[in-house]
Design a protein that fits this description.
The chain contains three helices and 16 strands. By secondary structure, the chain is α+β, with helices and mostly antiparallel strands. The protein has an eight-stranded antiparallel β-sheet with strand order 11-7-8-9-13-5-4-15. It has a three-stranded antiparallel β-sheet with strand order 3-16-14, with no helix packed on it. A three-stranded antiparallel β-sheet has the order 6-12-10, with no helix packed on it.
């Protein structure tokens, strides 16, 4: 278990802010219950933020047939939809909602060639809102499997998430389970699969990013 690099600045700012607050409390007041309360609250707040940036080691079951969960969270959508941005046609959608208490490291669901990367500025509706997939701040990424199958996944900001990070670019070759991005403070990822893909998760199922198999591709 390590701390993700995206947390460095946030944790330093948090330590500085809480240090100043506690310093002022100890300077202005003698030994009081208020000082102890502020100290305890500060420690709890820091630990909450610290756990958000945790980056655990994962053991990805590498399999060209499998689509791996790109994030920790809960499956909130499994349905056939129209994907208007890239495919412009019907696809199977699986959506994973990440609470502030989930690991927010994002991992490649398949190995292959990055065909498309596009960032969209937008709103900050709650991540489970039906329009969050098309109106919120988001990044769309498409990876082409070695057999030609393309899988699209979309990082979507939520009401608290104000920064989406991605580390891949078009024409880059990526490996299943490796890190491709990070979203700060609560968010969602949508995955769009071919109609002949076999979904292997259920609604409300918990997923582990880089480990849980959420679907199997046909013709691999």
């Amino acid at each position: 278990m390590t701390i993700h690099r995206e947390g460095t600045a946030t944790l330093l700012l948090t330590i500085t802010f809480l240090g100043i607050i506690n310093g002022l409390m100890w300077w202005q007041f003698d030994q009081t219950i208020l000082q102890k309360i502020v100290l305890v609250v500060s420690v709890i707040l820091f630990l909450i933020i610290l756990q958000f940036f945790r980056n655990p080691t994962v053991n990805t079951p590498i399999n060209p047939k499998s689509v791996i969960a790109p994030a920790d969270g809960k499956v909130v959508v499994i349905e056939e939809v129209e994907e208007p941005e890239y495919f412009k046609g019907k696809r199977k959608q699986i959506s994973i909602f990440m609470s502030p208490f989930n690991v927010h490291v994002n991992r490649n669901p398949i190995s292959g060639l990055v065909k498309y990367v596009k960032y969209h500025p937008g709103l900050y509706l709650v991540a489970w809102h039906p329009k969050s997939s098309t109106e919120n701040e988001r990044t769309t990424i498409v990876i082409q499997h070695k057999n030609g199958t393309e899988v699209l996944f979309r990082q979507i900001a939520g009401a608290l998430a104000r920064r989406i990070c991605w580390y891949v670019e078009e024409r880059q070759v990526v490996e299943q389970g490796k890190e491709f991005g990070f979203i700060k403070f609560g968010s969602r990822i949508d995955i769009f699969l071919p109609l002949d893909a076999k979904v292997t998760v259920q609604l409300d199922q918990k997923t582990t990013g880089g480990e849980t198999v959420i679907a199997e591709l046909a013709n691999t």
